[in-house]
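Task 17 of the worksheet. Students: predict the tertiary structure of the chain below and write it out as C-alpha cells. Keep your answer in the requested format; marks are given for formatting as well as content.
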Amino acid sequence: MIDTRHRNSAFLIAGCFFMEMLDGTIVSTAARGSAPRCTHRLPRSGW
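Model answer:
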C-alpha cells in the first residue's frame, strides 16, 4: 500500500521531470527562432 508520504514524493518527482522536459522544449524552440536574428558581433579589440 502506498502511504501519503510516498505518494507526495512521487508527485514531486514527476512534477520535476515534467518541468525539466518543458524547460528543454521551450529553450530549444526559442533558440531556433532567435538564431537567424542574432547578428551582433564582438569588437576585434576585445572587452
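Marker's comment: The two ends are 62 Å apart (CA to CA). The longest helix spans residues 4-34.
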